[in-house]
Every structure is written in structure tokens, then in C-alpha cells.
Amino acid sequence: MAKKIILTAAVTGAVHVPSMTPYLPITPEQIINEAVKAKEAGAAVVHIHARNPETGQPTSELGLMKDIVKGIKERSDVVVCITTGGAIGMSIEERLKAIPALKPELASCNAGSVNFVFSTIADKLTEPKFDWEVPFLKNTYDLVFANTYKSLEEYITTMNEHGTLPEFEVYDVGMINNIAFFRSKGVIKQPIYLQFVLGVLGGIPATVENLVYLVKTARELLGDVSWSCTAAGRQQLPLAAVTLALGGNVRVGLEDNIYLKPGVLAKSSAEQVAQVRTIAETLHYEIATPAEARALLSLKGIQNVDY
């Protein structure tokens, strides 16, 4: 049987701002629609952030997140991965509160601290739509995306308690060592699932050589674990092709890249999912359904969430 590839769509994120593209989903209804479209295009997993529906600003407001994930569940069986990264500058409490409240099947778990800089976007906004956009972007030049060992243990323990699988976001190679430490300490009690994120300013650059090195290091320190990869901006599709060649799963979406090809904005994350699906099927991979993704990642099932 052909290998099953899990495609993930990160549909809005907390980096890009509304002035960059008219297609960025902002309201709960828009995010729900994008998630459903991504699943129909082939995504087995959708990665979810919430935004203020009036301004598009990233928010940790629990009611909005619940509306989004409940709306997705009512219309689709896609696996929902709730962020605990939130947005740059949010507190640990803000970032983590959705896990005990909603008990999702899957949640992001950032595997270490990193300079996460996207201030250069502000230089390209000649006519920002909202007052918050430019200060938000520029502020990242003087912020560390903090994920200390103490907070990592709290994230992992909380997810263990509520049956939520951590999806470890790995921005640089040292973060693999962090994960290995927590496994050796017995804090990690569930299967390990890695999401390599390449190309963030402050993290590891998005190159073929770096992805191969990340995979090699993960295998040496963690063994044969499940992994996926995404790359920021223009490297998204080329690194997706390399990921598939290496047998990994793939994440795409407007969180990571707002373009479909050079100079052409993607109208939805579903368009990017369809691109990667074509590559995967050309390589004779099969695209995992949500049910197959649940089995591959040993998830607790949609019937056991609290939304």
C-alpha cells in the first residue's frame, strides 16, 4: 500500500496582517469556511488561530476560538489543531487556556524560544488598513518568542491531562534536543509528532540541506517519529516537494505563505493544498483522510473533544 501523507492547512495564523491580502480569513465564519474548503481539497488537519472579527488582530479570546472550532466540527470531520503559540507578546496563560477548555485532539506546542521577527513586512505596507498593524509588526524586532523549559513542561503536561497530542513546532535544530530531554524526563507521555518550521527570521533557513539535517537529527535523538514540514514565504512549495521526497507530511496555508506562485496571491489555503496534493499523487503517495490521520497520529477522536 502507498504511504499515506497527512496534509495540514494553517488557514490564518498570527503573522500576516489584513493589509497584505484581501483573502486572509478574519471572522469566525471566514476561518470556518477556509477550514472546510481546505479539507475538501485534501487537508486532513487544519491549524487554527483566532482573530478579532472587526480588525483582524490576533486574539486569544476563548469564545471566538470555541465558535470557530465548533463551527468546523459541525461541517467537517477534519482534525483541528488549536494553536498554543497564539501571537507574539501573548502570555503563557493566554496561549494555553484553550486546551483545558476545549480539549482538542491536537495542539501546537512550540519547542523552544526563538527570535521570531517579521518586522520587515511593515516596510511594505504603504496604506495599512488598521492602526494596530504596523506597531504589531515592528514590535517583533525587539521581542523573543519565549518558550522556556518551565513553560514547555506546563504545555506538555496540560496536553497530557486532556488527551491532546502536542504537535511540536521546531524552528531550529536545538529544539529537537529540548524534546528529547522532556521525553527522557518522562514528561512526554504520548507519541511524538514534529512540525518543522523553516524560513522564519531568527530560526533555521529554509534550505534543502537544513531540512535533511533536521530529519537526520530527529531520527538520531528521537527515533522513527512522525514529522511534517512547512516553510515560510516563497520556499513553501519547493520545501513541500522536498518533504514529500523524504517521506514527510506537509503543511501549507495562508499562515505561512500568502502566494500561490510568484506575484499571484492565493485566494485560499485550499488552493495551496491542491498544489501539494498534485505533487504527492504524482509521486504515488496517497492522501490521508482525517480518519486515517487520526489513526496515524494515535489521536483520541473527534467524539472526545469538548466543543
Care to give the gist of this entry?
This protein has 307 residues and is of the alpha/beta class.
SSE diagram, text form:
Blueprint: E1 4-5, E2 7-10, H1 28-41, E3 45-48, E4 50-51, E5 58-59, H2 62-75, E6 79-82, H3 92-96, H4 98-102, E7 106-110, H5 133-139, H6 149-161, E8 165-170, H7 174-185, E9 193-198, H8 208-222, E10 226-231, H9 236-245, E11 249-252, E12 259-261, E13 264-265, H10 269-282, E14 286-287, H11 290-297
Parallel strand pairs: 1-14, 2-3, 2-11, 3-6, 6-7, 7-8, 8-9, 9-10, 10-11
Antiparallel strand pairs: 4-5, 12-13
Helix pairs in contact: 1-2, 1-10, 7-8, 9-10
What does this structure look like?
The structure is a single chain. By secondary structure, the protein is of the alpha/beta class. 38% of the residues lie in helices and 17% in strands. The protein has one domain: Alpha-Beta Barrel (TIM Barrel). The strands form 4 sheets. An 8-stranded parallel β-barrel has the order 2-3-6-7-8-9-10-11, surrounded by 8 helices. Strand 4 and strand 5 form a beta hairpin. The longest helix has 15 residues. The model has no long low-confidence stretch (mean pLDDT 96).
